[in-house]
Design brief:
The structure holds two protein chains of two kinds. By secondary structure, chain A is α/β, with parallel strands linked by helices. Chain A contains eight helices and seven strands; from the N terminus they run βαααβαβαβαβββαα. Helices cover 33% and strands 20% of the residues of chain A. Chain A starts with a strand and ends with a helix. Classes of the chains: A alpha/beta, B alpha/beta.
């Protein structure tokens, strides 16, 4: 998949991993189980409304807090195709790349794109298009090493490919 | 151009003469850590590697501490998964209930961390070991799995933010107040992707427990790690706990910092972080009367022996306010035993507190002190996010053990300076 397209769910600064997937559900690591509670403590309607391909747009420091990989796993299993944010907390950033959840850092897009907009992201060019407003944005590109990890489908396939 | 302390450790770990901020490196790992929440995910991932097995059975630490003794059937299954993996791979440092403790108090206490080590842990508070002059950082379960399989991890070399400490802390003021003050000053993403380096003449006056608390919460400012220089106190601590001497790194004189903050420890006051972010730090001149329902004294941030001593000094001969639950959680078995021998547990029980076996339980809303709708808790833990300790309408006020103990007696958020 080199392109994502879907409807936007919009959130603010410092969306932490406790609201992405509350610890009371961490006794399981089953992606479909985790997805049922994704974003529950910040947006109870998210999981009822989200459709495969939909997009999360947030402001600064998305995914701060706990190192729980359950957070990007829940988002990915909920069907989200990409998370766009001004910045990501560093452990979430690593985890997303490691498990193959696409993420894009772009300040302008994070500020201007509104909830409910239809947005597409071309991962080859890094171009984000808000089809509702017609505006385009350029997401920050990854350093070559990280792009290799992403292209391999995550950290483990990457390590296996080097064996 | 000179290197920071963190950059020097990473350069050595990567086998390179020098590194610079932004460079992507692969470093050898001295220790890989996981707990009962994160390790099961990593263990499942281990099956996906072409090359099976662990890189070094002595350099992996598995600590079931979050939901143990198992709080429900699913938690028991997770613990079983970790236990069986540890047996199968003959992991030296697996800590069963009875030997365990909260991981970030337990590993230094067990002598598993040495200065100059490169450590990853599938727990965000792995940054705690910076207090011992090691590079340590939190990662997710896939990174933990890769670390266990290969003994290596990739890192982006961080820029550093420097905190130049001077002066000495006042009475009832501790490392917790320092780090809450710092997070209040720079914000929850104030050190995003960066290392926080604590230096200056004020470091010498800080106890090891204060340093652990400060490094522990570097992640709450978005930091990659939080590191202290190695001094006599560090060396004495390491000797007392049977750690290898390790390698002492010091920052170059001409190392570059993204920012330098000067902090006079004598000016730090008891500090409380209000819901729902650790950056909402306030001092008592700006705190109104706030009644509370619960107090938690413990966690990887503040469950060490000096934290319990401070709380006991305030609680001794006094009683917790009517209707308040006060939960004290020694961080490790050894700390628990010491608290018993020193009479601290008697003080807690006589004051009307309960004392729990070591667990992360309430800090992340697992068990052992979950909050109902609208309840308020003063807690020595590290996060006050929405719903972190229970219902989404409950509130967590982060504070030091002294402030927590004073609040338990008053039944409201209270300044320990009165004692």
């Amino acid at each position: 998949m080199k392109e994502a397209r879907g409807t936007v769910f919009k959130y603010g600064d410092n969306v932490d991993t406790d609201v992405i997937i509350p610890a009371r559900y961490l006794a399981t690591s089953e992606p479909s189980e985790l997805a049922k509670h994704c974003m529950e403590d910040i947006d109870k309607s998210f999981i009822k409304k989200v459709k495969p391909g939909d997009i999360i747009v947030a402001s600064k420091n998305f995914g701060c807090g706990s190192s729980r990989e359950h957070a990007p796993i829940a988002i990915k299993a909920a069907g989200v195709s990409v998370v766009i944010a001004e910045t990501f907390a560093r452990i979430f950033y690593r985890n997303a790349i490691d498990i193959g959840l696409p993420i894009v850092e772009c300040k302008e897009a994070a500020e201007e794109i509104q909830a409910g907009d239809t947005v597409s992201v071309n991962f080859d060019t890094g171009i984000i298009t808000d089809e509702t407003t017609g505006k385009t944005y350029k997401g920050q590109s990854f350093p070559p090493f990280m792009q290799q990890l992403i292209d391999a489908g995550g950290l483990i396939p990457y390590i296996n490919s080097r064996e | 151009m000179g290197m920071t302390m963190t950059q020097k450790i990473l350069a050595a770990g990567a086998g390179l003469p020098s590194v610079e901020a932004g460079q992507l490196i692969e470093a050898k790992l001295d220790l890989v850590l996981g707990n009962d929440i994160t390790a099961p995910v990593a263990i499942k991932e281990m099956d996906r590697f072409k090359k099976q097995g662990v890189f070094d059975k002595d350099k992996i630490a598995l600590v079931p501490d979050h939901f143990v003794p198992a709080k429900d059937i699913k938690s028991a299954e997770n613990c079983k998964c970790v236990r069986e993996f540890a047996r199968r791979n003959r992991i030296t440092n697996y800590f069963e209930v009875g030997q365990m403790g909260i991981e970030h108090a337990l590993l230094p206490e067990s002598g598993l961390v040495s200065p100059g080590d490169v450590i990853i842990g599938a727990d965000s508070h792995t940054c705690t070991y910076g207090a011992l002059g090691a590079f340590s950082t939190g990662v997710g379960s896939t990174d933990m799995a890769a670390g266990m399989a290969t003994g290596k991890a990739w890192f982006k070399v961080p820029q550093a933010v420097r905190f130049n400490l001077t002066g000495e802390l006042g009475k009832w003021v501790s490392g917790k107040d320092v780090i809450l003050h710092i997070i209040g000053m720079i914000g929850v993403d104030g050190a995003l992707y960066q290392s926080m380096e604590f230096t200056g003449p004020g470091v010498a006056s800080l106890s090891m427990d204060d340093r652990f608390t400060i490094s522990n919460m570097a992640i709450e400012a978005g930091g990659k790690n939080g590191i202290f220089p190695v001094d006599e106190k560090t060396i004495e601590y390491e000797k007392a706990h049977g750690a290898e001497p390790g390698t002492i790194f010091t920052a170059d004189e001409d190392a570059e910092y993204a920012a330098t903050y000067d902090i006079d420890l004598a000016e730090i006051k008891p500090t409380v972080s209000f819901p729902h972010l650790p950056e909402n730090a306030k001092t008592f001149d700006e705190i109104p009367e706030i009644p509370i329902d619960q107090v938690v004294i413990g966690s990887c941030t503040n469950g060490r022996i000096s934290d319990l001593r401070i709380a006991a000094r305030i609680l001794e001969g006094r009683h917790i306010a009517e209707g308040i639950r006060c939960i004290v959680i020694p961080a490790t078995q050894r700390i628990y035993l010491k608290a018993l021998e020193e009479g601290l547990l008697k003080t807690f029980l006589e004051a009307g507190a309960v004392v729990s076996t070591p667990t992360c339980g309430p800090c992340l809303g697992g068990y052992m002190g979950i909050l109902a709708a609208g309840e308020r808790c003063v807690s020595t833990t590290n996060r006050n996010f929405v719903g972190r300790m229970g219902d989404v309408t409950s509130e967590i006020y982060l504070a030091s053990p002294a402030t927590a103990a004073a609040s338990a007696i008053a039944g409201k958020i209270a300044d320990p300076s009165a004692y």
